[in-house]
């Protein structure tokens, strides 16, 4: 068997993983399973972020990250509304042409 290399995760990935648990209501086990990581690793990232540990990359610039996350969620919501409107308009004009 060959030597296994250690996977490295970006600060953004860690922050998103922590957000799944702390803001979106997933359990650590659910979030870890969905992300394909070990639950204990996710718990360690959360612990470091909550302590403000500089080695826990997820704690860097939380205000900026939170602002960006809110902006993106709002943009996503608007795009979904626009998509639904376009679906309804398409169905309306398709029935008009019959």
Walkthrough of the structure:
By secondary structure, the protein is mainly α. It folds into two domains: 52 residues; 36 residues. 69% of the residues lie in helices and 0% in strands. Helix 2 crosses helix 3. The longest helix is centred in the C-terminal third of the chain and has 35 residues. The protein is elongated and about 65 Å long. 11% of the residues are buried. The mean pLDDT is 85.
Give the gist of this structure:
This protein is mainly α and 98 residues long. Helix content is 69%, strand content 0%.
Question: Layout of helices and strands, plus pairs?
Answer:
Elements: H1 11-22, H2 28-35, H3 39-51, H4 62-96
- Helix fraction, binned, reads 55-70%
Q: Per the principal axes of the C-alpha atoms, what is the gross shape?
A: elongated
List SSEs in N-to-C order: HHHH
Q: What is the terminal-to-terminal distance?
A: 66 Å
Portion in beta strands: under 5%
Mean pLDDT: 85
Low-confidence stretches: none
Can you summarize the main beta sheet? Answer: none
Kindly give the count of domains.
Answer: 2
Structural class, from helix and strand content? Answer: mainly alpha
Q: Evaluate the radius of gyration.
A: 20 Å
């Amino acid at each position: 068997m060959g030597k296994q290399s250690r996977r490295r995760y970006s600060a953004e990935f860690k922050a998103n993983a922590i957000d799944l648990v702390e803001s979106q209501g997933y359990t650590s086990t659910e979030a870890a399973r969905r992300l394909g990581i070990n639950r204990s690793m996710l718990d360690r990232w959360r612990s470091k972020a909550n302590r403000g540990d500089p080695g826990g990359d997820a704690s860097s610039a939380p205000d900026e990250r939170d602002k960006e996350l809110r902006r993106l969620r709002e943009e996503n919501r608007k795009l979904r509304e626009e998509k639904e409107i376009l679906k309804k308009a398409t169905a309306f004009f398709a029935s008009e042409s019959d």
